[in-house]
């Protein structure tokens, strides 16, 4: 039975009578449905949209809760003796119920006791699985993002009981955590600076004090490499193990932090001490919470799921993106990857339409072009990017084989998908954008790649810094190296 806003409550309860006992747990108002004659009176006219309004909750919350209960009840009935799988599913449904109660307005304190009674121990994989299912079953990613802080607060007590993760020096997780130590130190210093700012009036917030804050923000902003490595190295591997929800939520939070850092620059130019302090207090809190989420949820989950070969690929790719403030320590040694073992044979020559090239020649020819190139195949998966020395947009080997929709921030995914769909249908062959980024003028073009018969083979993305090109005037016909 399909559930939506037009579903009649009478038909629903006739088919699934066990929902009568469950509905009052969503809202006490629904206990009226069990009063004599009430269901007969309302059942033929009241839709789920009306019932949701009656209970003061969102329609998608009600539909989700009902669908989850139906799935739980019917799944349990067919599960024979039950066993560990059913217990895990029941615990997951209860955890999801707690999150939805928080979403509907209940406070952390109101649900904390229920959580303690449910389970004194909950691991990071259960949190990840819960977020994944919430997204898959219809709760928007934006709603999950809003709840992320509450998730961690509810689970903080059990997460705090977990042993600290132990990764050897040189291991990617060890490097991430060392970066977090540096970031935490910067944030603590910034918090101290903000205490003084909170006592100032506008006249006391001098240019010198603003300059000190600006220098501190310059140091903190290097965290972007830390986030880009997560997005390009860890998230693709989590998707490989069918864990996409948490990484989508965390990427959206990365973008929030980036927006906060950008807004800080604007407030340093225009804002007074009160607005600046309020904004930076929120930024510090959000970034410290991100450290906690990484070390208590993300990194343990990655250590649990990734193989040594996976970590070797992470280590190999992260150098292309770079590190925040530090370099990896000596110690951990990556395993030899299969592709590295077999890379020492004869280079061979590849026949092209016009001429022949060795793999080495082709690789370095593409890397020498003054443009960034990425190729997405006909199945919407990234198959190549040019590893130029100064890429405009960071990439690492972790994106190879990944769906293109997962390689862009959530807010721009629909634009990329629209372009690819138009190319595939033959409606369009080119899309073009230009942006101003960090003082540079960036030209971005997308081209449909087709064979001689017009068959769609994929999408080519070409990005170029044209800042200096736009300044050119007149003609230059002579070589003037001596003047440089």
* Stretches with pLDDT under 50, minimum 5 residues: 76-83, 342-346
Instruction: Give me the side-by-side strand order of the main sheet.
Output: 4-3-7-6-5
Mean pLDDT across every amino acid position: 82
| Biggest sheet layout | 5 strands, antiparallel
- Rg: 27 Å
Structural class: alpha+beta
Number of helices: 18
Provide a quick synopsis of the model:
By secondary structure, this protein is α+β, with helices and mostly antiparallel strands. The chain has helices spanning 9-15, 19-26, 38-42, 48-55, 59-77, 83-103, 108-118, 124-136, 141-160, 172-197, 207-220, 223-240, 245-270, 273-305, 308-321, 338-341, 359-368, 413-425, and strands spanning 349-352, 355-358, 372-377, 382-385, 430-437, 440-450, 456-465.
Describe the overall structure:
It is a single chain. The protein has 484 residues and is α+β, with helices and mostly antiparallel strands. It has 3 domains: 152 residues, no CATH class; 150 residues, Four Helix Bundle (Hemerythrin (Met), subunit A); 123 residues, PAS domain (Beta-Lactamase, 2-Layer Sandwich). The chain is built from 18 helices and 7 strands. The strands form 2 sheets. It has a 5-stranded antiparallel β-sheet, with helices on one face. Strands 1-2 form a two-stranded antiparallel ribbon. β6 and β7 form a beta hairpin. The protein is globular.
């Amino acid at each position: 039975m399909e559930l939506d806003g037009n579903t009649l409550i009478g038909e629903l309860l006739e088919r699934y009578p066990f929902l009568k006992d469950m509905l009052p747990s969503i809202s006490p108002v629904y206990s009226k449905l069990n009063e004599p004659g009430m269901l007969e009176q309302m059942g033929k006219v009241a839709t789920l949209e009306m019932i949701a309004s009656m209970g003061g909750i969102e329609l998608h919350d009600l539909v989700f809760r009902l669908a989850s209960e139906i799935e739980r009840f019917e799944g349990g009935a067919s599960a024979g003796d039950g066993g560990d799988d059913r217990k895990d599913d029941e615990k997951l449904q209860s955890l999801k119920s707690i999150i939805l109660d928080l979403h509907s307005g209940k406070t952390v304190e109101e649900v904390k006791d229920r959580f303690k009674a449910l389970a004194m121990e909950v691991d990071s994989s259960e949190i990840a699985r819960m977020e994944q299912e919430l997204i898959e079953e219809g709760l928007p990613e934006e709603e999950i993002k809003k709840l992320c802080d509450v998730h961690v607060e509810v689970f903080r007590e059990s997460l705090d009981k977990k042993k600290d993760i132990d990764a050897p020096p040189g291991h990617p997780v060890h490097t991430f955590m060392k970066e977090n130590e540096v970031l935490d130190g910067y944030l603590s210093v910034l918090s101290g600076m903000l205490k003084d700012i909170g006592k100032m009036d506008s006249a006391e917030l001098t240019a010198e004090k603003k300059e000190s804050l600006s220098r501190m923000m310059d140091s903190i902003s290097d965290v972007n490499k830390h986030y880009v490595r997560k997005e390009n190295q860890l998230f693709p591997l989590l998707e490989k193990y069918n864990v996409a929800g948490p990484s989508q939520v965390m990427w959206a939070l990365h973008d929030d932090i980036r927006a906060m850092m950008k807004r800080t620059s604007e407030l340093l130019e225009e804002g007074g001490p009160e607005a600046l302090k309020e904004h930076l207090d929120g930024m510090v809190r959000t970034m410290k919470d991100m450290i906690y989420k990484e070390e208590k949820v993300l990194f343990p989950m990655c250590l649990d799921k990734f193989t040594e070969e996976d970590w070797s690929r992470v280590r190999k790719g992260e150098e292309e993106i770079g590190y925040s403030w530090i370099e990896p320590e000596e110690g951990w040694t990556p395993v030899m990857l299969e592709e590295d073992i077999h890379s020492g044979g004869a280079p061979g020559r590849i026949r092209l339409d016009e001429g022949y090239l060795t793999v080495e020649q082709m690789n370095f020819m593409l890397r020498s072009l003054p443009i960034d190139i990425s190729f997405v195949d006909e199945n919407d998966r990234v198959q190549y990017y040019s590893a130029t020395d100064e890429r405009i947009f960071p990439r690492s080997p972790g994106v190879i084989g990944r769906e293109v929709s997962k390689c862009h921030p959530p807010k721009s995914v629909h634009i990329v998908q629209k372009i690819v769909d138009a190319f595939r249908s033959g409606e369009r062959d080119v899309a073009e954008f230009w942006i101003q980024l960090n003082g540079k003028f960036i030209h971005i073009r997308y081209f449909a790649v087709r064979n001689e018969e017009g068959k769609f083979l994929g999408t080519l993305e070409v990005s170029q810094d044209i800042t200096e090109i736009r300044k050119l005037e007149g003609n230059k016909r002579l070589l003037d190296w001596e003047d440089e």
